Structure to design on (237 residues):
């Protein structure tokens, strides 16, 4: 009985193995490119729609801490209510922007999108409630006006953080890099820029109006400042 010789790989198989490996590498590279392109497209859609409400939110937040000489408590109340309305509108539009962009092509993308939209809508509803509260603030009692402004300032800070948290949840890993590359999201809270919470909501010397109104405005400014001057977070409004 003759000893069996080990079989040698056929020439066609020897040649096919490197070719198959090269094809696999090529497919992997194409897949990575496709994912990057999908992330870029998603980020472009989001940031294009989010740019305007982000800017509106930043403007309103900045205004809540603006001091205006001669502003009476009643005028201050009207201005603050307007800012709350602007923040509610901005967050509603941000929720719509996230919804319109669709679910990002990442793990749990649908869940991330759904949660972000829900949180932004909740934030908008929260600002509407604060707006209604501000519109009812008493302006004829110094202590009550100051305490009410302090409470409102704290609520605005919490809502700002909630809004930022909702947007930041969509910016992990490569998806975050795609967002940061978009012009509409550069130098904004969406890409992690830091903006202080309203440092002294209602800060107005209230030089105009009666003496009682002026005292109320000054007291409210001092009270609100002590509660939130040191609070700083990455916020979109």
């Amino acid at each position: 009985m003759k000893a069996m010789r080990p079989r040698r790989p056929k020439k066609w198989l020897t040649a096919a193995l490197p070719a198959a490996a090269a094809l696999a590498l090529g497919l992997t590279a194409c897949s990575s490119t496709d994912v990057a392109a999908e992330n870029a497209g998603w980020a472009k859609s989001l940031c294009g729609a989010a740019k305007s409400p982000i800017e509106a939110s930043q403007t309103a937040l900045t205004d809540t801490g603006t001091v205006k000489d001669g502003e009476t408590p009643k005028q201050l109340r009207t201005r603050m209510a307007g800012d709350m309305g602007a923040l509610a509108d901005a967050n509603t539009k941000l929720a719509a922007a996230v919804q319109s962009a669709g679910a990002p092509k990442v793990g749990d993308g649908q869940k991330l999108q759904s949660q972000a939209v829900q949180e932004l809508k909740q934030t908008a509803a929260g600002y509407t409630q604060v707006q209604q509260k501000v519109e009812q603030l008493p302006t004829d009692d110094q202590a009550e006006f100051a305490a009410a402004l302090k409470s409102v300032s704290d609520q605005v800070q919490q809502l700002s953080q909630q809004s930022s948290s909702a947007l930041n949840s969509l910016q992990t890993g490569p998806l975050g890099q795609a967002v940061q590359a978009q012009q509409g999201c550069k130098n904004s809270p969406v890409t992690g820029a830091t903006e202080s919470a309203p440092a002294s909501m209602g800060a107005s010397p209230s030089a105009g109006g009666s003496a009682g109104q002026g005292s109320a405005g000054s007291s409210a400014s001092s009270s609100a400042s002590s509660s939130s001057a040191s609070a700083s977070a990455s916020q979109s409004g």
Q: What stands out?
A: The longest helix spans residues 11-64. The longest strand covers residues 195-196. The chain is about 70% helix and 0% strand.
